[in-house]
Design goal:
two-stranded antiparallel ribbon, alpha+beta, three-stranded antiparallel sheet, 89 residues, binds zinc ion
Length: 89
């Protein structure tokens, strides 16, 4: 198990706030990605467990837990329906 540092905790919080992937159909943040993880490399922060990627992602399969079907997610800044997205042109 990885040792949690203050820096790691801050980085995780930053990721959760700024790097959000949403469903391109409904805008939900409740999107899952199918991937392999290293079962022995994880840490738990505030009751949530974070696993380390194990190698590459095979097929980039995403699932929206709100639409309940396969999704093609986009970064929150690219989602058209998001009122908080900053548009720079
Ligand atoms: Zn959706």
């Amino acid at each position: 198990m990885l040792k949690l540092t203050k820096q790691m905790k801050a980085d995780i919080r930053k990721l959760k706030e700024q790097d959000i992937i949403v469903c391109d159909t409904c805008g939900s943040e409740n999107v899952s990605e199918k991937m392999w993880v290293d079962v022995n490399s994880y840490l738990t922060v505030d009751g949530e467990t974070y696993y380390k990627y194990d190698g590459c992602i095979d097929d980039n399969t995403y699932w929206c837990n709100k639409c309940y079907e396969e999704a093609a997610p986009v970064h929150i800044s690219e989602y058209k329906g998001d009122e908080n997205a900053e548009q720079k042109s």
